[in-house]
């Protein structure tokens, strides 16, 4: 299955400071900013775009339970994950399982933009946190246009 880079997630401590850097230094545009207090997310997210490339800035909202807070404590701020867009998330998960790659089923969810996502087990990816995602609503909208 074909994969394309969807976005890079960056763990930050101070979201406003990071937004200013991306805007003032990189010329990024703030596309969206939202909070998710769902268990296993507990983050505030700023979606930044530079010439069509998306970076999600991720700041923990709960320093006890947020996976972003845990990541920062263990590895420091910086690149948290790389997300790859696939045509069909369910099919991609099936292909991963056939190749012996585990997914973290508890991370499967749909975000506020309709993106379905799941994280691969870092033990199977040489320690890199990788997200697979798709946008099923976009497929439906494109089909309706044709």
Automatic annotation (TrEMBL):
Belongs to the methylmalonyl-CoA epimerase family. SUPFAM superfamilies: Glyoxalase/Bleomycin resistance protein/Dihydroxybiphenyl dioxygenase. The keyword Metal-binding applies. One of its GO terms (molecular function) is methylmalonyl-CoA epimerase activity. GO terms for biological process: L-methylmalonyl-CoA metabolic process. This is Methylmalonyl-CoA epimerase. It comes from Piscibacillus halophilus. Keywords: Metal-binding.
